[in-house]
Amino acid sequence: MISRAVVLAPILLAQAVRVRRTTPRLPAAAGPVSGLVEGDGRPTRLAVLGESTVDGVGAATHAEALTGRLAEELARDGRAVAWQAVGKTGANARVVREELLPLLGPADLVVIALGVNDTIELHSATRYRRDLLDLIVSVRRRAGRSPVVLAGVPPMGRFPALPRPLRDVLGARSAALDAAAARLASLPGVVHVPMPAAMLDPATFAEDRFHPGPEGYRRWAEQLADVSRQLLSDTVRRQKH
Questions:
Q1: Alpha carbon of 213 to those of 118, 155, 159, 220: distances in Å?
Q2: How far apart are alpha carbons 19 and 6 in whole angstroms?
Q3: Under the phi-then-psi rule, with left for phi > 0, alpha for psi from -120 to 50, and beta for the rest, what region is 115?
Q4: What is d(CA 206, CA 60) in angstroms, rounded to the nearest whole number?
Q5: What is the pLDDT of residues 100-157, one digit of tens each?
């Protein structure tokens, strides 16, 4: 049976070209890519690794983007958090492993935010899972047995910049890649945190209607912080026994 994507290929290609041509190109977040949220005790070392959302596209500074927002959320219980954002606009999972991993510093918690570029590049779920697994293994070799949080692939069916049917096709593919990533949560110390579609509404997007704006990053960081805080507590508990 011929798939819907094949039948719609000419329309999808035309829409993709139009979106690329008309969507504003926003810069990465300005300012330093590392920082410290002050608090008590030795700082918890947070590293966030990934694509344009980790590069801070859609926010003025990293303090308003995913990494800075997540560091602030983790510091709400009084702990100090030293954070590092290691991101590249346009990067897929393989590029992150090959080009960005050498920039990763010591970390007590690693958050990986990927999937949009792998979706746009029409990578299969099998390839994405393999590339993500290779990245996790490489992170572990570099950062030790620190817990890893896999941020869910954003549901691209909710991206306002994408017209239909392109939005539907990329939405289905992003869901397939996210399901593939979720299976990696069977690995010790790896947790997958899906992004609920309901978390996205027009108010959460930047002016390009494709990347999160400050409000989108705030909501995403709150969601990731709940799981991250529990992982850090579990790690401390194991170290005491």
A1: 21, 16, 12, 11
A2: 19
A3: left
A4: 10
A5: 999 999 999 999 999 999 999 999 999 999 999 999 999 999 988 899 999 999 999 9
What is the residue-averaged pLDDT of the chain?
A: 91
Rounded Cα–Cα distance for residues 193 and 144 (Å): 21
d(CA 33, CA 29): 9
Verify cis geometry, omega within 30 degrees of 0, for the bond prior to 165. yes
The position carrying tokens 């709940």 is 226
Task: Write down the pLDDT at residue 2.
Answer: 41
Name residues whose C-beta falls within 8 Å of residue 188's C-beta, 6 or more positions apart in sequence. none
- Per the CB < 8 A criterion, the answer to whether 71 and 32 are in contact is no
* Length of the chain counted residue by residue: 241
* C-alpha–C-alpha distance, residues 121 and 116, integer Å: 9
The Cβ of residue 74 has, within 10 Å, a number of other Cβ atoms equal to: 23
pTM: 0.92
